[in-house]
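Before the break, one more example. Copy the sequence into your notebook; we will annotate it together after we see the structure.
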Amino acid sequence: MIKQLFLSAVHNVTAHIKDFSLHPGIDFSRTRKLPPDTLIRLLVAEGASSTRVELLDFFGFDPDAPTSSAFRQQRAKLRPDAIKEVLDTFNASLSGLEPPARCAAPGYRCLAADGSTASFYSAPRFSPDSYFVSEGHSAKGFYSVHVNTLFDMDTHLYMDAFLQPVHEKDEFRAFCSMVDRIPLLPETSDIYIADRGYCSYNNMAHVMEKGQYFLFRSKDVLSKGILKNLGLPTDGTFDRTVTVTIQRRQSKKIPIPPGSHPRFIGADISFDYVQYGSDDTYTMTFRVVRIQLPSGTYECLVTNLSLAQFPPERLARLYFARWKIECAYRDLKYTIGMASFHSCKAMHVEQEVYARLLLYNITEALIQSTVLEAGNTKHAYQVNFTRAAHICRAFLRLPPEEGRMNIAALLRKELVPLRKDRKYPRLQTAHFRKPKYFIYRAA
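Here is what the structure looks like once it is written out:
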């Protein structure tokens, strides 16, 4: 079923491939060994081996398999948004599948927002300067694309992605774009959860304008952040509701509602609902919750969720569950392979980023559809994601007309115990990993 949904999503795109071609009406107009549907399937099923090895594996070691040169020529005709469209269509086909449990409560979907950087080696003739990172970690520098995503914490699926060259990185703009375009589920409200890098009035307004909810971590009241000068206590825990009025022109003639705190936003900061220099205002109300961590330090959460349904203790557990997206990025990079690319061109790297996100979602969908028998064991068990990804690649490489693999039986053999009480200290410094040169690929 999952593979059929994927193939249907691919067919939905290739049926009007001219809309996703670099040269519409010219590209993909002739019959080749790598038609658009096969090309997309190959990009999604790729591992971390060299291009030639991937082609041999995909075509079952057929001597007549396409060459690496043919593969590069075909992929040069395909815009990255073709695979993004396949990802969106595949996600839409899974929207009717209800997860076994919700992180927040029935009727709420928790979407974690975060970003990560994917680095690769390139040259000025292959990639624009907006992707180039100056020398520092590498003698000749390297290139990077910033990957912004929305991750469903209940189904463990990447629901949307927004790619930016590293020098055009703007997580606020990416977040607002994804919030505006993500489809809503019937009778379900979305809760957008993000760390303090996303806490801004513009992000809050975009979520509220869509009638949804946010839960952002913010800088503490003692710091110079958006919580400064709101009349909040400076010590201990608290849960206060505050009202803020945004204005984009400094004038005492602009009326401010009683009890509201005025906030001026200059021209260098984005706020999409009030034009800079106008007399218009925008008023919003939200809760500021200060909680104490086991270490004794304090953390502030900003939300528009109701106090009756989401008291401080519940908000703290909900925000802690955001760590799932950090684990998902680890699997996406080092298990799925978003740290190993098969091209040095920025456009082709973006193709592979979307393909890796799609492969991750297909793997998770297969895991979610596998029913595990509960036994009399010390621990509960789940499918090993690393093994499942390997099985998924082999599954997708099978031609649609060939025999089936018993995916469920294979996945039930690859289990790992769940140990929910384990805790590890967080690394204090980010660990940079250089991109991989092509000559160091697996044979």
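The chain has two domains: 2-86+334-428, 105-325. The first helix runs from residue 2 to 14. Try to locate both features in your own notes.
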